[in-house]
Amino acid sequence: MPDSMPPGVILSVDIASQSLTLTNQGGEIVARYPVSTGLNGPGQADGSGCTPLGDHYVRARIGAGEPVNTVFRGRRPTGEVYSPGLAEAYPERDWILTRILWLCGCEWGQNRGPGVDTFRRYIYIHGTPDSEPMGVARSHGCIRMRNADIVELFDRVPAGTHVRIS
């Protein structure tokens, strides 16, 4: 975990409005995107299906250069490209597509450490099928985005970027 957040862009996820805001170093809003957070609401506990609150940072960026709709399992491309037919064949899958920004908590006992660790819970900002609604909490705890939006965001966000979820 970085001792202090690097200067630069900041991501703010607002669970109430189901939105993600990108601000620059000067505090100006650069972009705002609709998202879908945890169906079970905000929360920290392992296995809760909730989206964790507080200060985080982007620990890993996964999927650079992969085609839009690339399917990931265990943070690795499967070789599949999402399609309605693939979704019909595997209706139980939680689709993680296109790009992954893997988050790590910064607050010991809140979103980092035993029982509440965002990184060990595999909480990401990631792409999802474009047929999935945005602005509605429906994920298993991650922050889902439209594929075009996650590609755009991924290209603007370096590892170490501060992420505030409230």
Automatic annotation (TrEMBL):
Entry-linked Gene3D superfamilies: L,D-transpeptidase catalytic domain-like (2.40.440.10)
Pfam families linked to this entry: YkuD
Superkingdom field: Bacteria
Keywords, in A-Z order: Cell shape, Cell wall biogenesis/degradation, Glycosyltransferase, Hydrolase, Peptidoglycan synthesis, Transferase
Domain L,D-TPase catalytic: 9-166
Pathway this chain belongs to: Cell wall biogenesis; peptidoglycan biosynthesis
Record carries keyword Hydrolase: yes
InterPro entries, per database record: LD-transpeptidase (IPR050979), LD_TPept_cat_dom (IPR005490), Transpep_catalytic_dom (IPR038063)
Active site per UniProt: H126 (proton donor/acceptor), C142 (nucleophile)
Family under the similarity heading: Belongs to the YkuD family.
Protein name: L,D-transpeptidase
Taxonomic lineage from the root: Bacteria, Pseudomonadati, Pseudomonadota, Gammaproteobacteria, Pseudomonadales
